Amino acid sequence: xxxxxxxxxxxAAAAITLRQRHSLRPRQPLRxxxxxxxxxxxxxxxxxxxxxxxxxxxxxxxxxxLSFPILVxxxxxxxxxxxxxxxxxxxxxxxxxxxSATEVPDGKLKICDREIRIHDPSESEKILPSIMEExxxxxxxxxxxxxxxxxxxxxxCKLGLPVVMGTTGGNRQLLHKTVQDANIYAVISPxxxxxxxxxxxxMEIMAGQFPDAFSGYKLEVMESHxxxxxxxxxxxxxxxxxxxxxxxxxxxxxxxxVRDPEEQVNVVGVPEEHLEGHxxxxxxxxxxDGTVSFEFQHNVCGRSIYAEGxxxxxxxxxxxxxxGAGKKLYDMIDVLREGNMR
Length: 342
Ligand SMILES: NC(=O)c1ccc[n+]([C@@H]2O[C@H](COP(=O)([O-])OP(=O)(O)OC[C@H]3O[C@@H](n4cnc5c(N)ncnc54)[C@H](O)[C@@H]3O)[C@@H](O)[C@H]2O)c1
Ligand SMILES: O=C(O)C1=N[C@H](C(=O)O)CCC1
Description:
Keywords: Amino-acid biosynthesis, Chloroplast, Diaminopimelate biosynthesis, Lysine biosynthesis, NAD, NADP, Oxidoreductase, Plastid, Transit peptide. By secondary structure, this protein is α/β, with parallel strands linked by helices. It has helices spanning 10-22, 48-56, 78-89, 124-134, 149-159, 172-182, 194-209, 234-245, 261-268, 304-322, 332-338; strands at 2-7, 69-73, 93-94, 97-99, 108-111, 114-119, 139-142, 163-165, 186-188, 218-225, 256-258, 278-286, 293-301, 329-330.
């Protein structure tokens, strides 16, 4: 579930600002939160020639279903498990191997009736080459931990393994350089939820077209996530960098991190059933003289928005690999621009 509110009118914003001053509870979203996604059709691709040939016979073209092998690293994580399930339901071949720093009974994990063999990360360099031989079109999806981002990226690059990197944190500049220098196909994004990416893209466009438009404005940022999330949201960092391009001075350590479940329910307004998996973000801007304020929120419950976006990113990357695209390093805005959303 995703809800977003944007208030720009001074009076409305002033009212919100007052309300917000006393609590972080987001206002009722301006629109009913996006409900559970409708059952998804698998994204289909079609070679234009096939489609044209079939259509010319007057028979509606049914493009071939897209299916390829995907290894989720790590299936033992909350996000990895959600992606593995979304991949299976989208018809992708889930490779029955994963790596994890978390011990699992008998070294096996059941996902969608499939038995996934779990190995220690130290074995990945030894095991992955044989997996790549068995699954030549393999794409790996990485949802591990910030401390593993750069080492994992280096390994995938060393093996020439295409990757969808969803894990946040680590040294992002080094991550992009490693992947760029290795010339492997990759989608890298701290945010895989398509609608949040669309908001981020709008922010990037605004920042690109109107640099310093908000210079002198004061920015307050609050982000609330499950208590197990240790790092500052990568999405929040990306949005903040847009505000910085718009002329706002803000230090990343000024972000108000809310990880206390009681505050999340009573102040932020997180539904109790989503305490273990949510992302509520609020960005509040106030003019130097205090007469104008803006507020942006994006509030996500659960992980399906990210899991579905990750599957779209993997399908996007697969089509780029198959077509031998010259550009190899992508982000989620590239995936959205391609438009082939399920
Ligand atoms: N891009 C997005 O849209 C998006 C969405 C959700 C989460 N995330 C990010 O994904 C990451 C994981 O989030 P989560 O909620 O699944 O965390 P989690 O702690 O539930 O899962 C992380 C898993 O990685 C495993 N792990 C640790 N080190 C590893 C290594 N070296 N190799 C393989 N596995 C290893 C752990 O055992 C754990 O099972 C975080 O960085 C989070 O910010 C990104
Ligand atoms: O649950 C998480 O962890 C999330 N991480 C990403 C971030 O750090 O912005 C995306 C939102 C959820």
